Amino acid sequence: MGHKAAELYGNRTMTNPTQSLYAARLPIFPRRVSGYFRRLKWALMLVTLGIYYLTPWLRWERGPDMPDQAVLIDLANRRFYFFMIEIWPHEFYFVAGMLVMAGLALFLFTAALGRVWCGYACPQTVWTDLFILVERWIEGDRNARVRLHEAPWSLHKWRLRISKWVVWLIIGLLTGGAWVFYFTDAPTLLRDLASFSAPPVAYMTIAILTATTFVFGGFMREQVCIYMCPWPRIQAAMMDEDTLTVAYRDWRGEPRGKGLRRRAAAEAAEASIRAAGPQIGPRSPVIPMPGRPAMPSAPVLTEHKGDCIDCNACVNVCPMGIDIRDGQQMACITCALCIDACDEVMEKTGQPRGLIDYIALSDAPKEAAGDQPKSVWRHVLRARNLIYAGLWSGIGIALIFALFLRPDVEMTVAPIRNPTHVVLADGTIRNAYDVRVRNKQGTEQIFHVSLDHADLIITVEGSTSDKIAIPADSQGQARVYVDAPAGSHLATHARSDLRLWVTDQETGERAAVDTNFTGKDDE
Amino acid sequence: MTTHKDDKDIGTTGHSWDGIEELNNPLPRWWLWTLYGCIVWAVVYTILYPAWPMVSGATSGVLGWSTRGAVAEEIAAVDEAQSGLRAELEATDLNTLAANEPLHRFAVQAGGSLFANNCAQCHGAGAAGAKGYPNLLDDDWLWGGQIEQVAYTIRHGIRNEDDPDARYSQMPAFGEILTRPEIDTLVAHVQSLSSGADPLAGAGGEMFSANCVACHGEDAKGNRDMGAPNLTDAIWLYGSDTATLTTTISKARFGVMPAWGLRLDEAEVRALAAYVHQLGGGEATTEE
Ligand code: SF4
Ligand code: SF4
What ipTM score was computed for the predicted complex, to two decimals? Predict the structure, then answer.
């Protein structure tokens, strides 16, 4: 084993023991880039942020006694509203089903497109993208920001820094603010927040989310993805060789090269970074993968055959600060910005685009050997993805069916068992039942309780009739007495079947529950 | 197999097992600060809150917080929150209580837990009573089933010596007055009353009118002013079998109920009355 490892990895040197075990974060200054994926990401940012910030303000008419917020998680009253759908706590299986669907969707997308969630839709990525946009808008593009970073503190630097932080804070505040609106009526809460009469938990939530947005989007950025988030680990395990992911066509790009002088300068810079010590993240050394052809250890000086001109554009635009040319890395969130950057360069040098591209690992050797790769559709429509998609839509269809099959009137009946029956003065045998009826409508409804035995007398405690009034959108409970006259069949038999009905007086909708009647069995 | 040039740049920690070496990928420094932050938090926490185990109990923490204190605070907060409802319940006319939906619900809920604590021992958790302890679910009442009558019974109790206003009545022990055959006749007569026999007919009727009508009435339907039970209905507090009735008539029964007004406050008595009144047998208030 020992010699094999040495063969694989060479002879390592032990790290200098005085070297720190901890590494400071190296700041990353992603350069502006334009292209297909950048445009796609702008559009997605607009859509996701738009949904997030605006959803609580959508209205939906439900009835006079019901909230009119289209999407509302009403924890206090234990209701979840989503447009025409209202979910009661006993229907939590909808939420469970949607969570399972979200999980399956993640499996599907990861198996098909790698870390596409990370690159395009994850809030960490979207907000960081937005924060970088603000940064660039205030402090300038990459070079200006590097200069500013290295410049000593001056009035100018303070002014730029503070205005950037203020804009970040405002975004953070709006983010935390939007969150709380999902949990209560948004316009009312906004008024309360402004007049400082909102509940403390609202202010606390906003404060915490403002702080996390500010810190995660402004300062932690790639650190969140690399060190705090479990997805990179999980998703790496869910990808396979057919997964389309961002990769560098090294067989096409290498040996990379540029003018000899420029390359010497680039190598010197490279060497200084390497000398600074190893780290994950910015300029991370790749973890070697056995079986994968390693890259030439040094560019060939005399010849220049590869398409890569070693301009470092792909490195400079990378929000994670890594070099995709080092191969697949845990730090890569597949944001695809390096594809755009390289495509731009390829256009200038007159080479075909796609030196960095979405590639399936199984295609790499084929392409390298000059063969045709599998088509994108054959990668996407493979059995594994179809099974995920099938499961996902199966659960979705089942949930939709369940949604429309939900009864409008629901009743539960709990027969009182202590005591099982009561003898009244005239010998009548009385059984009592706790009847709970759910009124799912937006107005108060009257429900009739009835039985299919004609000789029984039914009364509702506290009323002289067989009616139960249940307020809008709530569950009501009533004690129902069923009296069997002395000597009747039910009164004289130990146990008889009984079916209780409730009927909505207005809609005629009814529900039944089978229970039983206990008679006096000692006669 | 060749080696990636980058690999050589990563040093190892010097740890090696079976030739497998551990790469030295340093942790980010902020991670370390997070750890220090947690340590500081933990130290501050142990100073502020109960933490270190001592010989008897734990250090109490400078904030003086305790789980018992938290419960006491919660109870005080609930008492505080309910004080308005309690005052309203004390002031309200019990006869109109049911019309005041929120107050009635409060009274019934409070009465339910008071019942479980104070009354269930005799009347049972389900209020179905037991031999000698009236069933509160039926529509038969010894002293009246209107809510004010129920409240009076709860407040002052029955045949106790603590409250001068307790409801009081006593049946003579007929074993000392009548002969055994006479009692047997009377027992048979009383047993027949539930099935509609004429209370005054026959030999039993004669004895009944001589000894019992003063309290139980000529129609044997009892008298609530005296707590004399209705003998014509289907409900028997001690039982209607011959042996039980013989004992009841010969020795007389003397059921006692405490005066709850001496132990509970007025709001609690009223809450209990509201609870008992809605168990199925409560009677509507009639004008006197
Ligand atoms: S390597 Fe490319 S795809 Fe990966 S994070 Fe960097 S820019 Fe995005
Ligand atoms: S952008 Fe393209 S050409 Fe430039 S260094 Fe990256 S891979 Fe090479």
Answer: 0.83
